[in-house]
Amino acid sequence: MAVIISWVVCFVLTITNVFPNDEGKWGYEARTDLHMDAILSSPWFRVPYPGILLCTFVDFCIFFAFFTGHQHSLLCKPCTSHCD
């Protein structure tokens, strides 16, 4: 989480041109646009998409069971608070 937060901070500072474009100046190496090709070309970094591991499907019975349980919790919560 700390790596993601620090990268986002460096990204914002890069966009707002707080870090210089000159190689010799302080803060140049913290620019996020310098080594973006290393991240995009690495084999371990990939964006997952639906169906990459298994075929995705929706089972109506499972959906109906969860939906019914959700509706039941919404309807019964006000009733139990008034009965106390």
Question: If you had to describe this structure to a student in words, what would you say it looks like?
Answer:
The protein has 84 residues and is mainly alpha-helical. It has a domain at 1-48. Helices cover 52% and strands 0% of the residues. It has helices at residues 2-15, 36-41, 60-83. The protein starts with a helix and ends with a helix. The model has no long low-confidence stretch (mean pLDDT 79).
What topology emerges from the helices and strands here?
Blueprint: H1 2-15, H2 36-41, H3 60-83
Helix count, DSSP H or I runs of 4 or more residues: 3
The end-to-end span amounts to 43 Å
Question: Strand fraction band?
Answer: under 5%
**Low-pLDDT residue spans:** none
Helix content: 40-55%
- SS content category: mainly alpha
Keywords for this entry:
84 residues; mainly alpha; 3 helices; elongated
Summarize the structure in short.
With 84 residues, the chain is mainly alpha-helical.
